[in-house]
Amino acid sequence: MSDIILKTEGLTKHYGGVHALEDANFEIRKGEHVAIMGDNGAGKSTFVRQITAVEQRTRGKVIFDGEEVDFSGPLDAREAGIETVFQNLALADDLDVPSNLFLGRELRLFNLGPFSILNNRAMRKATEEGLKRTGVKIPNLSNSIRNMSGGQRQCVAIARTATFASKLTIMDEPTAALGVQETAQVENIIRTLKESGESLIIVSHNMRQVFDLVDRIVVFRRGRIVANLKREETDGQDVVAYITGAKTGAEYEGAA
Amino acid sequence: MAEAAASADIFGGRKKKRHWPPELNALVGLIGICIIFEVLGWFLRDQSFLGNTVRLKIMILQVSIIGIIAIGVTQVIVLGGIDLSSGSVVGATAMIAMSFAQVGTYDRAVFAELGWVDLPVIVPILVGLLCGIVAGLINGVLIAYTKIPPFIATLGMMVSARGVASWWTKGQPVSFPTDSFAALGQGMMPVFLFLAIALLFHLVLKYTIYGKHTYAIGSNEEAARMSGINVERHKVLVYAIAGMLAGFAALVLAARGLTAQSGMGIMYELDAIAMAVIGGVSLSGGRGSIVGTTIGMLIFGVIISGFTFLRLDAYYQDMIKGAIIVAAVVADQYRQRRRAMES
Questions:
Q1: Does domain B22-335 correspond to CATH entry 1.20.120?
Q2: Is the pLDDT of residue B316 over 60?
Q3: Site from A146, A183, A191 to mutate, B interface, most B CB atoms within 10 angstroms
């Protein structure tokens, strides 16, 4: 039981009359990489938003690192060790790399409330180390993010994880907007995360990517989990059948 | 691991050329305008434009008070907002603060019956700063918590604060401050005060969490919120500081003129915004600096005293001032488009 990093029980989210997520039971072990797949509107992003407390769930339990948690916001979740790379990147274009990595949790030299003096040198050093760990090379750290390519930006977002030694990383379609080379780069970073034993939940539409990278695939359909498949025991066609509704996992019969 | 590092070099090889900072554009503009006036001066008036210490002193003096407002406005624009109320806040604050700064020997002092005369100088200063802060707090709370656009919230404050300025003494000017209050505006004092405030906020924006979060919110408000920044509270703080600086400018202005009238500070908000924009502060937020605004302020000063020097009518001054503001925004847009195309 202790090696389960995150577990949800009956996680449910309604937007008014829309049942975006219904009774989701999910778990992930330490060091495991799990993909979440499903059609548009199947509840994948909704599921991620409940775990990271970007939204508050309607009902259900979230158990993180052995304890039931009730985060009040994304910062809470992040402080507990859940690092998220959002679909829309969540980077401030006009700031440089270290500022973006440390946004909202800047290192301070003197604490004077909102006028605390920043410890720029320490943040820069930690950034360099974090980028080194993930194998990302960025020519000039003091360049603003605006001047970087899509791949570099995505790498910066992912490098947050390595810098802050989180317990669980969540990526919501990290390569959806990237070219071939850039996608390869991001996938390499994900492999290094696997080697260093980081747990990861990745939301993706890319079948090849999923089969390359993860241990297990969880399929969502119409707000419900309909399948929980080990990578070795399934294939692309099988997963598509679950996504489209041609098949439903035995333990989820009657769910959808 | 090694393989990952090697393939990462794909990006490393793609070097971007360094971008020319907008402050440098403004500085080149400033030097260019100075040279034009210098040349015109020798041709038309047979004398040097810049080689005249008295002219340079007046030039800096007449813009430094609006410059103090522009420092607050810069922070608001970097945050992604706008403040149209600063001119009216100057009017209201000048009236209220001045009525706490009068000498007792003046027999027509307003509110003399309440004993508001010969007070120590700290009283009107604190009252003035407080007035500015209150106006800024109202702006900030309206914008952050009722989510109305900053343009509307501060437009409302602009009209209301002007009303307060007339209501306070029913339109009567307030004059004859104590010597210690008047000292705030005499000689080159406004310039020194501007420099001190500019330096302070330059450091604050560059080296504190306050500055970092101001740029972050102006750059991408949603990202700032997801990173756990309390965006609403920060907005209130920035508008309050902008209000406080407008209040401080009002004190210096009243002390300099030895009087306060309800019409003081009309159009100052637009001049302050223009100084920031000319200095490279982007109206879409996230970019700009106190250094840029200071250069923008100097460009403003040079143009005004240059036209006076060439004995051009005030009409032309305003026409050309307007054209320069538009040109600065066009240049900013052009820069942004070119940048978007490069990446």
A1: no
A2: yes
A3: A146
